Amino acid sequence: MTPDIRPLVAGNWKMNGTRASLDQIKAMAEGVKGSLSEKVETLICPPATLLYVATALCDDSPLMIGAQDCHQKQSGAHTGDISAEMIADCFGTHVIVGHSERRTDHAESDALVRAKTEAAHAAGLVAIVCIGETGEERKGGKTLDILKRQLAESLPDGATAENTVVAYEPVWAIGTGLTPTASDVEEAHAFMRSELVSRFAAAGGKMRILYGGSVKPGNAKELMSVANVDGALIGGASLKAEDFLAIYGAYEELTA
Ligand SMILES: O=C[C@H](O)COP(=O)(O)O
């Protein structure tokens, strides 16, 4: 955690979830009401098909709803894509950009991620910009070089602590049950913090840096207590309200 930064516990449902899954969102929306909600923000990013209904379900809850991707343009002939403006129109507040699955499946470059981040900002959304090294890059000792490049090239100059969240997701830790050691996470997050401060000055000191990659109820407290880890981006464990709320609940003691 970083003193004075309100952590964000975010779930990314990826290509999972149908109308039947809305019960989970309802349970999460109820579960995050209470005293902890003043200290910790919560967000679920369901597939785009559920966005509008999900925001309606969270009307009287602090649980926020976001999307998993947006196009870099505001509108036009881009079959199958959705724009940041459309997400805002559905009352979404955040959008994930540059997830490693999009970088791999759709060959998204840092320059494209940066353009999507700018589109998110223009629509008034908070962009959650994902970065992280592959297993090969880690073995080759290139982790910090990759993070430096992705941060420099994926974040636009207009990034602020209010409109941008960075999510560090080591690609090899996603969906594998593997996680870096707490000291590896600490080193990566300290490095990202210093890069953000050197580019964005005070705003870089306040920007949230989430950790993502096999976060579960059992390891959340240890990972979230590492310096400069300002929350989590959770995949598999965010699909069930019970697990998501258990990870959120890990903050009970950490923020006491
Ligand atoms: O966006 C979320 C991440 O890719 C982490 O996924 P995971 O928690 O299933 O490893």
Task: Describe, in plain words, how this protein is organized in 3D.
It is built from 12 helices and 8 strands. It has a single domain (8-254), classed as TIM Barrel. With 256 residues, it is an alpha/beta fold. The protein has an 8-stranded parallel barrel, surrounded by 5 helices. It has helices spanning 22-31, 51-57, 84-89, 100-105, 110-122, 135-139, 143-154, 182-200, 202-206, 220-224, 241-249, 251-254; strands at 8-12, 41-45, 64-67, 94-97, 126-131, 164-168, 208-212, 231-234. The radius of gyration is 17 Å and the shape is globular. The structure holds glyceraldehyde-3-phosphate. The site of glyceraldehyde-3-phosphate has 14 residues, from strand 8.
Which terms summarize this structure?
8-stranded parallel β-barrel, TIM Barrel, binds glyceraldehyde-3-phosphate, 256 residues, 12 helices, globular, 8 strands
